[in-house]
Amino acid sequence: MRWRITFAYAGVLALLISIFAAAVDLGAKSVLLSSAADRSAAVSGQLTKELETLTNSPFGPVSVRTALADPSFLDEFAGPDLYVEAFNEFGHAVGRSTNLGTVDLPTTGLQPFQPRTATPGLHWGLTTFNGQRTLVNWRSVRKDNRTEAVVYVAQSLGASDAILRSFRLFLLTFLMIALCVIVLASISLARAALGPIGEITRAAREISSEELGKRLNWKDRADELGALAQTFDDMLERLEAGFARERRFVADASHELKTPLTVINANAQMLARWGSQDEHVLREALLAIQTESATMARVINAMLTLAKTDHPQALAREHVDLGAIVKDVGSSLRATASAKGLHLQVDASEGAIVHGEPGLLRQLVTNLTENAIKFTDAGTVTLEVTKNNGTAQLTVRDTGRGIPDDALPHIFDRFYRADPARSRAVEGTGLGLAVVNNIVRAHEGDIEVRSELGHGTAFAVRFESSDG
Q1: Parallel, antiparallel, or unpaired for β 456-464 and 446-452?
Q2: Which of 13, 95, 326, 451 would be 348's cystine partner, CB 3.0–4.6 Å?
Q3: Do residues 29 and 164 touch, judged by C-beta distance below 8 A?
């Protein structure tokens, strides 16, 4: 890419300078040619006026051909690289300036030429004379409505062409130097432009799952590369946080599964040794295996749900009556609440339609309700569904022990429990609220928690309602 940018810069600038040099060359050529034409036209005009003066002189007029046949007369208008010659109406030479010697000016095969300023009666052409480009103009001298002579004035362009060649050599030298400077400048610009990208590339190569702490820290750049570097740093920060969460998740999952696996293994060994001999050992071992395998199943199911909700675009959504789901969950968990001496109250009118996956919404309501029952020792657990201003809201309220303020920011973290010791006295996986939070996020809703120690907790979940 660096070389492509270099060649692009150099090519564009070289093209522009070449166009500029060509325009300057054309301009110089035009100026020199116009200057020669102006000089030649001025000589032709002076000669014509002098002829008119001689032919109309009060001291004795001189005929046109007599005046033009006198070399001394024509020499007055000739000069270095400037020649004058007169021809009669039949094309025969009448007279010529001395610097022509015996050579006639070319009068045929002239290349047409048009000066910037046209002179009435004056004709122009370009030819080669004495080995040099020559500008020729001619006009007819008439008297009494008949052509007396045709006067040619030729201006050699040798000096102008020499100046033009020197100027072109200068332009070419300048162009070559400019091209070298452009190439060097383009390399420098490409290096300056792509250097930061190379640094980002090197940083990216140094990054692995074990080394995500590297940052560019380009705080002083306010340009696009600075924005790219900041985006790169932000991405690394998110990746580092994501990897940390995954490592913690794997560690916690391993910890959560290790205990039931250990219990299952120990009871399986007990069964192998004494199960056939002691009925009490058989019953206790089978009960422990059943309990721990159920715990493992809950952990695995919760982890599968979390993985599923991490990709909400893959969910099979449909219009769901949230009130009907809440009533169904309330009916299924009423016995569990009654077993703890709790009153489970359901206040959910049907018609609160949301767009989502029924199974996940049911799991959300179930997790919140089971959590409320689990942490409420006496009183009431209330499930309520309301609809207001295009929003369907589920509220799960309990009169339980409440959540400490320092624990509230972390209750949706995976495997988090408010008890620092993560006591297993209360049955659970530590994933219930994490699953709830993922389900809410997958359905583009929001969840709010209000809690007071000793007075209970209320979870409010809001979804955009649908008319179905």
Answers
A1: antiparallel
A2: 326
A3: yes
- Which domains does the chain possess? 2-165 (3.30.450.20), 224-309 (1.10.287.130), 312-464 (3.30.565.10)
CA 146 to chain centre: 79
Q: Which of residues 190 and 443 earns the better pLDDT score?
A: 443
Please write the tens of the pLDDT for every residue from 361-390: 888 898 899 889 988 889 999 999 988 888
Instruction: For the full predicted model, state whether its pTM sits above 0.85.
Output: no
In sequence order, what DSSP letters do the residues of 186-204 get, joined into one string?
Answer: HHHHHHHHHHHHHHHHHHH
Structure tokens at 331: 């009916």
Q: What is the DSSP string of 92-121?
A: -EEEE-GGGTTPPPP-SSPEE---SS--TT
Tell me the sheet residues that pair with 171: none
Strands 342-348 and 379-388: parallel
- Closest by alpha carbon to 143, among 52, 45, 69? 52
Instruction: Say if residue 150's pLDDT is above 90.
Output: yes
Q: Are 188 and 181 in contact (CB under 8 A)?
A: no
Phi-psi region of 390 (alpha: psi -120 to 50; beta: other; left: phi over 0): left
Tokens representing 48?
A: 């014509």
Which uninterrupted H or E stretch holds 53? helix 2-55
Across residues 93-121, what is the average pLDDT? 89
Q: Which H or E run contains 143?
A: strand 132-143
For residues 311, 317, 319 and 321, what is the CA-based torsion angle, rounded to 10 degrees?
-60
Cβ atoms of 37 and 21 within 8 Å: the answer is: no
Residue type (1 letter), 122: L
Tokens of 355: 């767009």
Would you state the pLDDT for residue 426?
A: 52
Amino acid at 262: T
Q: How confident is the model at residue 136 (pLDDT cuts 50, 70, 90)?
A: very high
CB 380 within 8 Å of CB 345: yes
The tens digit of pLDDT for each residue in 214-267 reads: 776 777 676 676 777 778 778 877 877 777 777 777 776 676 677 678 878 887
159: buried, middle or exposed (CB in 10 Å: 19+, 13-18, 0-12)?
A: middle
Q: How many CA atoms lie within 13 A of 27 on its CB side?
A: 7
